Amino acid sequence: MVPSRPPQLRSRTRRNLCDVRLESLDRDDPQGAHAELGDLAERLEGEGYDVDVAGLDAPIRARLQKSGGNVVIDVLQVVLDESERHLIDAVIAAVTSWAIHRRFFAGSNQATPQLVVWVDREIVQTVALPTNKFDILVRVTGVDQAALSRRLERINQSLADGDVVVLQLVGTVPDMPTMYSGSATTTSAGREDAVRRLRATFELAGMTLIRRETAPGGDVPFLHFEASDPA
User: Which among 38, 120, 133, 149 would be 20 to 30 A from 91, CA to CA?
Assistant: First the structure.
């Protein structure tokens, strides 16, 4: 697919370092991502940049490409003027510093989150946004062992390379549902995004989140899922 080209920025009085336009391509939670983009805008403005945030109804300027068999979606775009080309590295440093603590802009499914820099309608640089590994404790009830094995295989196949969910049978108690417990290791922008993406993956496998807690003695999320269908 040929990349679509963002419009030229209108001329402004050069009070600040440069004009920056931020565009969100997060499709899982556009409103949440847009609000977080406002936080990035405030940080950049505090460093002396003039910032314009594209609205939720702005045309999505997505570039799709194949990389290692996976679709790559550019989730955050920065647009600069030609006269500001010398500030590319400074803008990238500011954005990636912010991105370490972001919740959104993490790609979808196995997409690679990226920052894309445009100068005068041309892509001049792409940078992978930083991600982290997060551990999440998991409990599953309401499904037999054979069905759980099939669902777990489906879940692990849909996770990014290196991510995994491991569950073991806890034991059976008369008149109580069979219980499995374990953990998930997932790559994401932040802990909340990791929980959101893991929940979506389990739901696609026919399991519903019925309770969320925090593991004692730490801040590790503890998610309890229950089968929502008998398959």
Answer: 133
